[in-house]
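Q: Could you fold this chain for me?
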Amino acid sequence: MFSKWRKYSYAAQKQQRNKLYLVLVWLAAIFVLYMALNNFFFSFKILENESMRPALQAGERFIVRSYGFSRLFSKGSEGSLQPDRGSIVVIDPSLERDQGLPVRIADNLVRFFTAQRTGLINRENRIYIKRLVALPGDEISMKDFVLRVKPAGQAYGLTEYEFSARPYHILPPQVSPLWDESLPFSGTMDTLVLADNQCFVLSDDRSNTNDSRTWGPVSTNIIAGKVVFRYWPFTRFEQF
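A: Sure. Below is the predicted structure, expressed as structure tokens.
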């Protein structure tokens, strides 16, 4: 093997090394671009369940505007990280814990070379797509599965629909007339005032209780981004 290698001239060997360096530089540049876009500007998500019917269906794919860049330069200010009421957001509880920059870079590296099939941080089963219905400081209550919201400083409240910039519909479950309002998941909730760093998120399919009705209010720190486009299936392409 050594004699075979010696048959190449110095110029040929240098050319081979330069080609290898160029490939490595291109791979590094693509990875850095991918990591920057995925963490700080936008990402791609898949809805895994039917919790957001009728607006969204399981298996649909979305482009999400990430809040990583805003969070990086907000210096603790939450104002720039808040989407509007009625927005569809991505909740990522793993953001509550700082994994450290080396771990995050290694995780992105593994995801990059495995086409998002695996990673070092187990986050795939901990990401939720929900509708943001109330912001920090809001006073909220629920009647017949519809949230009523009174923003801080206002004298009156309105339904969640009236505060949303885009119309949407919910799927209220069929509740037996014998189901007392004091029982869990009856569609009624006592008045609650959100703290300065809390939001309230709900499923559009209100029979799905995997939302703030069971978690409680969520921290603004774990709102990873806002859904802006549905790109698959093409027949249901839509901007949000």
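A (continued): Helices lie at 2-6, 10-41, 68-74, 101-113, 160-163, 212-215.
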